[in-house]
Design goal:
Length: 467
């Protein structure tokens, strides 16, 4: 293994984070399309993100995923980097179009091989692999047949899940079906800001239902393929929602946004039904002919028991009532400072609030924080290091909030910072940097940021506390 020479320890060992030393394993997350590059290698098929990147005006600077961080070729060095940081767990995603280039039919052994090598390489370095099956890169051939707007895609996803389980079940025991189905359904099919770039609310509602159904079907298929020892969950992007003004109208808007973002996904997965106050959206999608109502059969599948809930937390949201504005009749208020380079509010307390709410309303479900992190306009690299004080403070603040949640009884088992590397940030292209490790896209050189060194020392400290 190559040794990576980092500079002096950066963790000062104070801060009320001891409760985290109990059951939490620490790591980092990435996603296939954001880091791998090599979009034509070894028989990979086209994905909706390849197509979206090539649609003029959709992605900043016309950036694409063709090269990204070249992780597909540099994965061994990247694993050495993870080992040098002392990561205990690594969340990556499997690209469906590598495994099944047209989304269905025989598996592409060369594509699967990459993920086997990766998982074996992680295990050899003592790092736990967590595999996400879907981080937004649908095979374009399935999109051509209706994508997530079509029920059939859910059945294809279950076949893909079974193939991944059969091929990798001996080296991967942590599985996530979907990453952020809200983003896939609504940013992809209502706002049109992400692939496939559709703008139609009833289609987005149908997509959300098919995504949820596919989660349940894939959970069943994975269990059958991998066996009882596998731990399976879904990752949701959740946020506390606040009314941006006083009075019942704004409080109502906050309830609608909460129903839309949080309960629309939590309720079916953990309680087996859609929230009553949001059901009219489902019914209108049925009336519009986008969805065939098979709720009675589907909901028990969607509620198939899982082993953990993956939570991605970045920021809370603030909304005003706006009767004329869209199907939810609300508008987002500008985020109060401090904000990140994405314009997202920095509020570590929101993580504590969110986790306590999930436990209060849904019971003691084990939680994996599958993403948390921040993009800032980092200063340039100097002497091989990027001084990203703001990101370090962000991560530290959220770990302290997480420790309070654990002390208050929330069963947290993983924490993955987003992201290991600077990478392709979807419609923002390479402009937004979330990595704790800096990537020079001209040379592909990786340089640690201060946050990576801080995190390395934090993990080492947690290890010492565990004894
Ligand atoms: C999440 C995505 C992840 C990354 C972060 C910043 O919504 O899951 O891929 O883009 O946001």
């Amino acid at each position: 293994m190559t040794t990576i020479d980092f500079t002096a320890p950066a963790f000062d060992g104070d801060g009320p984070v001891e409760p985290l030393a109990g059951n939490v394993r620490f790591g980092a997350a990435t996603a296939a399309f954001q880091v791998e590059g090599a979009t034509h290698a070894d028989g990979r098929g086209e994905s909706i993100w390849d197509r979206f990147c090539r649609t003029p005006g959709k992605v900043a600077n016309g950036d694409t995923g063709d090269v990204a961080c070249e992780h597909y070729r540099r994965w061994e060095a990247d694993l050495d980097l993870m080992a040098a940081l002392g990561l205990e767990t690594y969340r990556f995603s499997i690209a469906w179009p590598r495994v099944m280039p047209t989304g269905r039919g025989p598996v592409n052994a060369a594509g699967l091989r990459f993920y086997r090598d990766l998982a074996e390489g992680l295990l050899a370095r003592g790092i736990e692999p967590i595999a996400t099956l879907y981080h937004w890169d649908l095979p374009q051939a399935l999109q051509d047949d209706g994508g997530w707007g079509a029920r059939d895609t859910a059945l294809r996803f279950a076949e893909y899940a079974a193939a991944c389980g059969a091929a990798l079940g001996d080296v991967v025991s942590q599985w996530i079906t979907h990453n952020e189905p809200w983003v896939v359904a609504f940013q992809g099919h209502a706002h049109g800001t992400k692939a496939p770039g559709i703008r139609d609310w009833p289609t987005a509602i149908a997509a959300s239902h098919h995504l949820l159904l596919s989660h349940g079907l894939a959970t069943q298929a994975l269990r059958a393929a991998v066996g009882a020892h596998a731990e399976i969950g879904i990752t949701l992007n959740l946020a506390p929602i606040h009314a941006a003004g006083p009075g019942e109208d704004h409080a109502g808007a906050a309830r609608r946004m909460d129903g839309h973002l949080n309960r629309w996904f939590l309720d079916p997965v953990l309680r087996g039904h859609y929230p009553d106050d949001m059901l009219d959206h489902y019914e209108r999608a049925v009336a519009a002919g986008r969805l065939v109502d098979q709720r009675n059969g589907d909901l028990p599948v969607i509620a198939e028991p899982t082993d953990f809930l993956g939570v991605n937390y970045y920021n809370p949201q603030r909304v005003f009532a706006a009767p004329e504005n869209g199907p939810l009749a609300l508008r987002h208020a500008p985020a109060p400072p401090p904000t990140t380079a994405m314009g997202w509010e920095v509020d570590p307390g929101g993580l504590h609030e969110l986790l306590l709410r999930v436990r209060r309303d849904y019971g003691p479900v084990p939680v994996y924080i599958t993403e948390n992190g921040a993009s800032f306009d980092d200063p340039p690299e100097a002497a091989g290091l990027v001084e990203d004080a703001q990101r370090t403070a962000y991560v530290r603040g959220h770990l302290e909030a997480l420790a309070r949640a654990v002390a208050d009884g929330v069963d947290v088992r993983r924490y993955c910072v987003w992201s290991l590397l600077d990478n392709f940030e979807w419609e923002h292209g390479y402009d937004k940097r979330f990595g704790i490790v800096h990537v020079d896209y001209r040379t592909q050189r990786r340089a640690p940021k201060r946050s990576a060194l801080w995190y390395r020392d934090f993990i080492a400290w947690m290890r010492r506390l565990r004894g």
